[in-house]
Amino acid sequence: MPVIELSYSRLQKLIGKVSKKQISDSLPFLGLDIESEDKDLVRIEYSPNRPDYSTDIGIALGLQGLLGIKTGLLKLTVKSSKNYTITVKPTVSKIRPFVTGIIAKNGKIDDKTIKQLMTMQEDLHFGIGRKRKKSSIGIHDLDKISFPLTYTTVDKNHKFIPLNSEKELSISEIISDTETGKDYGHLLGQSSKVPIIIDSNKNTVSFPPIINAGITTVTTKTKNLFVEVTGINKADAEDMLSVVATILQSAGFSLENIQISGAKNSSPKLQEKKLSIDSSLINQTLGLDLSTPKIISSLKKSRLNAISKGKKIVCTIPAYRFDIFGPMDLVEEVALGYGIQNFEPTVSPSQTIGQTNPVSLHLKSLNQTMIGLGFLEALNSSLSSKRVLYEMTNRDSKNIISVLDSKSQEHTILRDSILPGLLENLSRNIHESYPQKMFETGNIFNLEQPISEKINLAVISAHKDANFTEIKSVLQTLLKIGFSIQIQTKTISHSSFKDGHCANIILNGNIIGIIGEIDSTIIENYKIRVPVVGFEISLSESILKSL
Amino acid sequence: MSQVFHDIEKKIINSLKENPIQTPETLENSTQLSPDQIRRGIEWLKLKDLAIVDESKSSVLRLGKNGLDSFEKGLPERRLLNLIKSGPKKLSEIQKELGFVFGPAIGLCRKNNWIETSSDQIILKTIPSELPGEKSLQLIGNNKLPKEQTDKIDLSELLKRPDFILEDIIKNKKISLTQSAKSLDVSNISGAIDVEAEVPEVFVARTHPLKDTIDEIREIFVTLGFSEILGNMTQSSFWNFDALFTPQDHPARELQDTFFLDGISAKKIANPEQIRKVSDSHKKNWRYQWDINEARKMVLRTHTTCVTIKHLAENKPDEARIFSLGRVFRNEKVSYKHLVEFNQIEGIVVGKDANLRNLMGIQREFYKRIGITKIKFWPTFFPYTEPSLQTMVYNEKLGKWIELFGMGIFRPEVTKPLGITKPVLAWGGGIERIAMLKYDLDDVREFYNNNLGWLRSNTKCQ
């Protein structure tokens, strides 16, 4: 979840009459978690479905509503203008087909606002932009650009001075040498051409989605902005633009529209949408009995507009709230506006009788019997490693199931056996007193279409007198006393066990496991100084078979 | 101190009652115990203030090597005088006869003017009947005499001579009973042992502490009317993500968060209608080209919700209370607060009573039963629930609010494509977090270390 840093004093200025405590008490009820606080600074985690909360300006809008300072929908006022046009050439359609944008004029930008706009841009790129793949933003100093603009493609030897560079670089150089080029160059695919926004003087404005031109950089002296969003989907690009437009208008800018045309592109509408909802759905879902006016005022506190129309409530939703899909989302807006802290939890008596799963019940009986036999329960990860599963125990690693890109060396392969993990456990306890007797039940995995999961039991006993007879007695008693099952053991040779001291465990003619004295090379591998005996059986093929 | 006596102690007490002052040696004889047992018994009785051990030092005198030689053969000067008693003898002859005492013998006899020496002969002049020291030598003989008994013996002559008289320092222990011990009747106390003494440790065989917490939680859900369902840990992306309205380009579906199984795809993931309706919902709401091959990719489940949603899609109940409990996986760096594999509990309620206040009520009831009463709810976001909340519980030990279970009502975009028509409440969270609070652990890895030191010493009931 993204985290942003805010200042209480700036929030107070943005919200109006409000104390620091009111702000910190209210933030969680907007769905914002306070990560840490340090005097005036507060770090906040917000949900990626609310990109408008990526700036303090957006959070202030929300808090104004929740605290009842300003409620209802924030209407975007976009002055219609013919001064700004972007023409789109068909060549972009195969690479990054859509561009949209807006003009924001006469704003004041201080350092803090620039910082907020930059984190917003980063968060939008990462979240709804899907790391700039879906859509990406460029914010420019309008006064450095001469309209009309063209969104077109150029060759990779095209040159301009990009952001944070002193000299001209070619597109190829930008892709191979700059940080953003290396990070996002792959989004342009194999095409020999790249998308570019150029102005009427043939100056490069932006090379989306990689980098802006240096000349259009926004500073504290900038008064007028040009915002462009490019992307692979028109609606997604306009969604992103709506967030930026809303934040800029709230920051004091006046918006003007841009005429966009060519190659299936058109000017952004940033339109509000209407959604109607039954108050009965709201009350049923929340377990409340709210009157229609109360519902309407709650929706307004969530910065939406609503009116009553017959039995329905018709809600107006601003463009930047594209997280609202349908009526259930409005139910949540009512809940938030009403205040989660105002909900009184209730308990409705259960109409059902609870049941433990028979598998869990059987495993619990098995646990009790194993404990009665003097064994301690161990727990290991099902995601183990080549070292533990195969290398240390001389086991065959033909059909391993591994996970991709694990961040942990110890967790790369799904276990196909439990016993190796227990041997590893013994090796970590050689300083503890003996006898050491442990068991574990858990899932094991085998490669079938796609994967078979079975439940196994492994048992291990390590002490100076450990021998085959002891462990076979345990196996026999466990199955006989616990589950009235009789098994046989038949000699077998296995790389993990000592020759002549190892047997298959057989139930009704089927091999369900293996038992024996652990081979001395394995014991030496693990630096264990006492003999070890153990067994592993498939519970899915024995005590759990009929379940 | 209770009046408990070891057999050794009893034997010593009884012996001392008969013979009130004894040495360890006499006690050995009278009790037939070994010197070591006597030593230990005396020590125990002394600690219990029942025996007095009077320790003293004394010295004894005895003859040394030269003293003993003279005791047997006579003083060197006596032996010389005896040799010449019957007439003068040659110097060389006497030297041969007396050996190494020849020198001192000649010196003494000359000094006392008992002999005369010519060029090569020794001639007797006079022979005293008793030489100085002779009597004392006889009095000591082979004995060891306490020093105080030698007051009357003139040892001056013998002490002058090397290795004639030796002095030994001897430590003496005299053991007697204290007054309280004398009145003690140990024969009445039979077979009792020191029940207050330290004993060796034995180790209990037991369920794993984390399993205890899991069982406790399972039990609570069952008593609240929930039935347990099970499911696989390996799941297709379809059930883990797509069916839960998580778009295919969602960051949670990247390798760095989720464990994808290398090269493994499921052939059959769901029935054709389920696939069609789920994919339609994605295309319409998330506006992208839904790819069935993405949905086939097998993952280690990131939550137990995939088990729940599969169950609901198959059974479509009008009323139900079910829960699932088991391991889930996240591709994280292992640390004191993160594991790649941990346990999750998830409960759902389907039916007409499924509303937000009831959902909160069930949480309150659950937490009450695990001993947490101070809770509150905050709004949050999950891709598959709307509205969504999280519980914050107050931890007295840490003195702060911590986040536990997440909850919400399944979105229509989740339920509708799968033919689930009734509202579904869902909530869940990690069990290790609760167990950490219970066992006061600050490193979650301890649950899977199988460290016998911890497992053997951890309190079972907390």
Number of domains of chain B: 3
What fraction, in percent, of the residue positions of chain B are helical? 25-40%
Strand order of the largest sheet of chain B: 7-11-12-16-15-14-13
Overall body shape of chain B: rod-shaped
Portion of residues in beta strands of chain B equals 15-25%
Largest interface: A-B, 90 and 92 residues
Give the oligomer, counting copies of the same chain as homo and different chains as hetero. heterodimer
The low-confidence parts of chain B are: none
Q: What is the second-level CATH architecture of the largest domain in chain B?
A: 2-Layer Sandwich
Q: Quote the average pLDDT of chain B.
A: 89
The radius of gyration of chain B is 50 Å
Q: Write down the CATH topology of the largest domain in chain A.
A: Phenylalanyl-tRNA Synthetase, Chain B, domain 3
Instruction: Identify the CATH class of the largest domain in chain B.
Output: Alpha Beta
CATH level-1 class of the largest domain in chain A = Alpha Beta
Please state the structural category of chain A.
alpha+beta
Number of helices of chain B: 20
Query: Average pLDDT of chain A, to the nearest integer?
Result: 91
Helix- and strand-based class of chain B? alpha+beta
Helical content class of chain A = 25-40%
Q: How far is it from the N-terminal to the C-terminal residue of chain A, by CA?
A: 42 Å
Sheet with the most strands: spatial strand order of chain A: 13-12-11-8-5-16-17
